[in-house]
């Protein structure tokens, strides 16, 4: 993610040709010991939270850093869960599901927030070829290309992949939610 963010900052420039000036990338972990140096109008997380065990302190720090709003971008199901059906076929048991968008909303409500949400449909995992799908699925399912489980994966992909123009895709269509809420200590949050 750091490489993508660094590349994005370099690609997008203001009208005078300078770098984007209102973002900062730090090589640090969240939550920090103190959020005072992270004060911002809006605190944003994107596809973070699916597997954070100590989510309460994480959100406490996010809300403490934001003076006006907190925003989270999450999928209805974590991105790897698109491969869950294949996991069962390959490993012989269902994959443990991590929480997604709806669980995040329930958590915010339980914490006393009144979130707003906008949802958009998206298409998961489109591939140029079945071979590309297999390469990605091998990595997502923790498999080597040889062996009986890889053969089971190829069989499962042959049954599961859906033709899509000149490529293939997994059948699951995800929803992405943009969730915003006012931090408890924000001015006027009551």
Structure description:
The model has no long low-confidence stretch (mean pLDDT 87). This protein has a domain at 2-77 and 97-123 and 173-181. By secondary structure, the protein is of the alpha+beta class. Strands 1-2-7-3 form a four-stranded mixed sheet. A three-stranded antiparallel sheet has the order 4-6-5. Helix 3 crosses helix 6 (148-160) and helix 5 (130-140) packs across helix 6. 33% of the residues lie in helices and 22% in strands. It is globular and about 55 Å long. It has helices spanning 2-11, 55-65, 84-91, 101-110, 130-140, 148-160; strands at 40-46, 66-75, 116-123, 126-127, 162-164, 167-169, 173-181.
The coarse overall form would be globular
Strand order of the largest sheet: 1-2-7-3
If helices are DSSP runs of H or I spanning 4 or more residues, what is the number of helices? 6
Determine the fraction of residues in helical runs and give it as a percent range: 25-40%
User: Termini, distance in Å?
Assistant: 36 Å
Mean pLDDT: 87
Sheet bearing the most strands, described? 4 strands, mixed
So what's the oligomer here?
Answer: single chain
What string, H for helix and E for strand, traces the elements in order? HEHEHHEEHHEEE
Number of strands: 7
Segments where pLDDT lies below 50 for 5+ residues? none
Q: Which class do the helix and strand fractions yield?
A: alpha+beta
